[in-house]
Design brief:
Number of helices: 7
Strand order of the largest sheet: 1-2
Mean pLDDT: 89
Largest sheet: 2 strands, parallel
Shape: globular
Structural class: mainly alpha
Radius of gyration: 19 Å
Helix content: 55-70%
Number of strands: 4
Low-confidence stretches: 174-178
Length: 182
């Protein structure tokens, strides 16, 4: 879902006259912690494929990402991104480091596999089930079938707003200055 949101944001930003090249200069603080979180996630995926389960590492990865979001909270879209990340973090932490996924939503999305690795099936004993992956997305409404959470939606909205801001940030003052000269 994140990739689709990024592609849509870039396309819309470009159609609005924004510059894709402006995305190369993100000026985000603490990016090394995002890299650390990515390494932890990659390690978790590799370990899960080999039969090892270290769900607490997911909590560590989320802490790294939340720290970076906190450092950049004043940028447009980052508050929504942080809110979504925090909601996902809460449900994952409350459920031992794994994101619960609704079996009903998996079926409604047209998926057949059960969750593995960093996801578990949503059970009656799950904590904060309303924050779990319970929203099914399927074609023709969405290109790839998947199940998402409320937090995922906020993350995508935050990323979308941030990309719009970055792509259009130099355009807005120029348009305002042109309007003042008339």
């Amino acid at each position: 879902m994140i990739l689709s949101g990024v592609v849509l944001a870039v396309l819309l930003g470009w159609l609005r006259g924004g510059k894709v090249a402006r995305l190369a200069d993100l000026k985000l603080r603490g990016l090394v912690w995002v890299a650390a979180a990515a390494v932890v996630r990659l390690g978790l995926d590799i370990l899960a494929r080999r039969g090892y389960s270290l769900p607490w590492l997911m909590i560590v990865a989320y802490c790294f990402v939340l720290y970076v979001l906190f450092l950049n909270i004043r940028l447009p879209g980052i508050k929504l991104f942080a809110a979504g990340t925090l909601l996902n973090f809460l449900v994952i932490a409350a459920n031992g480091g794994a994101m619960p996924v609704s079996a009903t939503a998996i079926k409604e999305a047209g998926l057949s596999s059960t969750p593995a690795g960093t996801h578990i099936l949503l059970a009656e004993t799950a904590r904060l089930p309303f924050l779990a992956d319970i929203i099914p997305l399927r074609p023709p409404y969405f290109p790839l079938p998947q199940v998402i959470s409320i937090g995922d939606i906020l993350v995508i909205l935050g990323i979308f707003l941030f990309i719009q801001y970055k792509m259009l940030q130099d355009k807005e003052p120029a348009a305002a200055a042109a309007g003042e000269e008339e």
